[in-house]
Amino acid sequence: MRTTPSALQLLMRAVAVVGLMYPATTGAQVDKPLELPNGPVKPGFDIKRFSSAGNGWFETFYVKETEPLRKVLDEGTVTADTRVLVLQTAGGGLALLTTQPTS
């Protein structure tokens, strides 16, 4: 005896057909090929542990202008309650804002 498919069965079949027509990879980001320079590597570098996963997903942000933290605090561009990430570098302290200043 043959029965008519239920609404759930019809929906599942429709989803399967759509899934075949539009594979999930169409919206996924694809890794770009990696360009490694020719030349010596630092001691301890193990190419077998290297991964290029995610290469090309983000555009590099190049800093074009910097200002001393004391200056922007004094001017009020950055206030005392602004969230700041401070790093110590070979060139001295580096403060990164977690928000875009409005000025």
Structural notes for this entry:
By secondary structure, the chain is of the alpha+beta class. The chain has a domain at 57-103. 21% of the residues lie in helices and 12% in strands. It has helices at residues 7-21, 69-75; strands at residues 84-89, 92-97. The chain has a two-stranded antiparallel ribbon. It is flat and about 75 Å long. The relative contact order is 0.09.
List keywords for this structure.
103 residues, alpha+beta, two-stranded antiparallel ribbon, 2 helices, 2 strands, flat
Describe the structure concisely:
The chain has 103 residues and is of the alpha+beta class.
H and E order = HHEE
Radius of gyration: 26 Å
Helicity range: 10-25%
Q: What is the multimeric organization of the chains shown?
A: single chain
- Summarize the biggest pleated sheet: 2 strands, antiparallel
Low-confidence region ranges? none
Q: Could you say which structural class the secondary elements and strand pairing correspond to? A: alpha+beta
Overall number of strands:
2
Strand content: 5-15%
Total of DSSP H or I helical runs spanning 4+ residues: 2
**Distance between the amino and carboxyl termini:** 75 Å
Give the overall silhouette: flat
The overall pLDDT average reads: 77
Chain-wise SSE layout:
Elements: H1 7-21, H2 69-75, E1 84-89, E2 92-97
Antiparallel strand pairs: 1-2
